[in-house]
Specification:
single chain; alpha+beta; 4 domains; 6-stranded mixed β-sheet; 19 helices; elongated
């Protein structure tokens, strides 16, 4: 059909639109719509042909045609038209249906029928430009579906209204709100797909939905005010289900087995924070033939937790121990994590051990001087970092050579491109009492002798374990990190050389690093200066470490390897996701209590801050808290300025500073 110069209606994204055909090339039409938009249309998309027209008259004529169509469409009774057809299975053109309903077949009546049936889809199904009457059973089924959909929408509207009232209310919550409170509590605990979640996100904002839910549940008496706010918001329980507690209680201390290397006669030492109860690692050193034999011993949690048992299932769900200023939410019940598996002073414990030999100059002896074994150890001394620092300073016969070895290991890694950020860290502890929460802030020096010692020994063990796994084709979870760009990286940063510029230097170097990733394939870890790296040093506190340790212990015992690659992929995916969530949770809690401390203690004081850039980004000295200074003036990056706190809201994580 030749349509050039005709006013038509065509399907555009499944909607019928008017147009004027300016040009036709075979089956392609160049069409202009009433708004002047040019469209290329296939001929088979033309539903109605109205009349010829000049292009200049098209907008006026189209307006009149559409008014007539709307008028005739209001007369169409779709259900009556469907009933008049009876049980037909064939397709109908709009012009046929208009003849049947109106007893006339004009372009306007055909268009009216097309529009009516496109809007009311209960009785007819459109197939291209034709319509098929639905069967009575199909109509009844669709009516039921629509009824249920309306009921769901009305229910959702009532729920949204109830949530809105709860968000706006401040006083006591009425009993009729209990079903809504139940749904909010279920969503908080289990992250279910309940409609109440999206409603809270819409009303309170995505980033504040769980905070809003927390406040509602607190008012409703569904939350213990003494429970940690951030754990509750994250849906993490401090306590364990009864079944897991009973499973842990039924465990017995591990007796020494003949298949394990007996190292109980060596004086093992642990070095941890004073309040650490989950003791993952211990160290030994002995001299043989002028060489140092260093033992790095990791608590063998796999001796107590088997793949798929109750404790393993719960640990997999929790993924990690979470350390917050107010509380520790452990991955394993305390009977296991702080007792049976923990390397406690004065008791025998099963361990996963790396033995490494060093010469008298503290140089590592090649592969022949190292091995991985299962062992039984006995911790003779439990030390804090401060106590260990004091002993190293005074020449302790065990710790001093270990520290010298650690320094040599650090130098070796640095020669392979490793960068260690030597920034002090804040440790915040909150203790609740009758007078309220008492906030204690401590500065941790990562450069202290004992912390360098422990850190290097753990890096050494994990690097050796990765090499062992790669050499033995043992499937484990590796951690990799691509190399930094050599131009962007620049020279290594020495914090001691320029302490006032430490924050600026840290910021500059941090931008050059790529994010580390988990993988089932060994690869470079540039930040550590190692060709391969895994993590098996914290099996009491990290589920991925427990799984990795379980792989090693099975191989060393010549048992079937418990986790195949497909299972490790699942663990890996969960670990990466959980790692980000837990880090965000810990950072948010720490930020809250730091801001709370500043609000209580420093609101009226003058504080020192270091300018990081010319846009006014600053970092509060002694607290490592970053913010924006509205008017940095001429202060250069690295310079120190004095500021005061203008506004602080710990719950929202907000703080504003101004020049003093």
């Amino acid at each position: 059909m030749f349509l050039e110069g005709q006013i038509i209606e065509f399907l555009d994204a499944d909607e019928l639109r008017p147009g004027y055909v300016r040009k036709q090339e075979r089956d392609r039409l160049q069409v202009i719509d009433p708004r002047g938009r040019h469209v290329s249309v296939n001929g088979d998309r033309v539903a109605i042909v109205h009349c010829p027209s000049r292009e200049s008259e098209f907008p006026t004529l189209a307006k009149g045609i559409l008014e007539k169509v709307r008028s005739r469409q209001s007369e169409v009774d779709v259900e009556l038209l469907w009933q008049s057809l009876g049980p037909h299975g064939r397709e109908f053109l709009p012009i046929e249906l208009s003849e049947l309903f109106f007893s006339e077949s004009t372009p306007e009546t055909a268009s009216a029928v097309f529009h009516a049936l496109s809007e009311d889809t209960l009785f007819f199904k459109r197939n291209g430009l034709r319509f098929v009457p639905r069967t009575a059973e199909q109509v009844a089924s669709e009516q039921t579906r629509r009824l249920r959909q309306r009921e769901r929408e009305e229910s959702k509207e009532r729920l949204a209204s109830a949530v809105h009232r709860l968000l706006r209310g401040k006083g006591e919550i009425s009993p009729d709100m209990e079903p809504v409170i139940d749904r909010i509590q279920g969503w908080m605990r289990h992250r279910t797909g309940d409609d109440v979640g999206p409603i809270l996100e819409q009303l309170a904002g995505v980033n504040h939905a769980r905070d809003a839910a927390y406040e509602i549940l607190l008012r409703a008496g569904r939350i213990d005010p003494a429970a940690d706010r951030f754990l509750t918001i994250a849906g993490v329980g401090e306590s364990f289900p009864r079944a897991q507690i009973e499973a842990a209680a039924s465990l017995l201390p591990a007796a020494h087995a003949s298949s394990r290397l007996d190292l109980r006669d060596l004086p093992a030492v642990t070095i941890d924070d004073e309040d650490t109860l989950e003791v993952d690692d211990a160290l030994t050193v002995r001299q043989e033939n002028g060489e140092y034999v260093v033992g790095i011993h990791i608590a063998d949690a796999s001796a107590f937790v088997s793949k798929g048992d109750l404790l393993d299932t719960e640990a997999r769900h929790r993924t990690s121990t979470i350390y917050l200023p107010t509380v520790v939410a452990r991955m394993l019940p305390e009977r296991l994590s702080t007792d049976l598996a923990s390397l406690r002073e004065g008791v025998d414990r099963p361990a996963f051990t790396a033995e490494v030999r060093f010469d008298s100059g503290f140089n590592r002896i090649g592969p022949i001087g190292q091995r991985l074994v299962l062992s039984t150890i006995h911790v003779g001394r439990r030390l804090t970092y401060d106590a260990a620092d004091n002993l190293i300073e005074h020449g302790d016969p065990t710790l001093t050579p270990l520290h010298q070895i650690a320094l040599r290991l650090q130098q070796e890694r640095a020669a392979h491109g490793a960068i260690t950020f030597r920034r002090p860290e804040l440790k915040i502890r909150v203790r609740r009492g009758e007078s309220g929460a008492r906030i204690k802030i401590m500065k941790v020096d990562p450069n202290s002798a004992s912390r360098v010692l422990v850190s290097e020994m753990m890096v050494l063990l994990n690097g050796l374990a990765a090499d062992f796994a790669a050499a033995n084709s043992l499937p484990v979870i590796f951690r990799t990190q691509e190399a930094r760009d050599s131009v962007a990286a620049g020279p290594a940063v020495s914090v001691e050389a320029a302490p006032l510029h430490e924050a600026v230097a840290f910021d500059k170097v941090r931008r050059t690093f790529k994010r580390s990733r988990l993988s089932l394939t060994p690869g470079l870890h540039s930040g550590l200066g190692l060709s391969a790296y895994t993590q098996a040093s914290s099996p009491i506190r990290r589920y991925a470490d427990l799984v990795t340790q379980r792989q090693f212990t099975a191989l060393l015992q010549q048992n079937p390897i418990p986790h195949v690659r497909e299972e490790l992929l699942q663990v890996l995916a969960a670990a990466e996701s959980a790692e980000l969530e837990i880090r965000a949770l810990e950072e948010r809690s720490t930020s809250y209590w730091l801001l709370e401390y500043l609000a209580r203690e420093k609101m009226t004081g003058v504080l020192n801050a270091i300018i990081l850039d010319r846009k006014g980004t600053m970092e509060l000295e002694d607290y490592y808290l970053r913010g924006k200074l509205p008017d940095p003036g001429t202060a250069e990056p690295g310079s120190t300025v004095q500021v005061t706190i203008e506004h602080v809201d710990p719950a929202r994580g907000e703080v504003r500073f101004k020049r003093a």
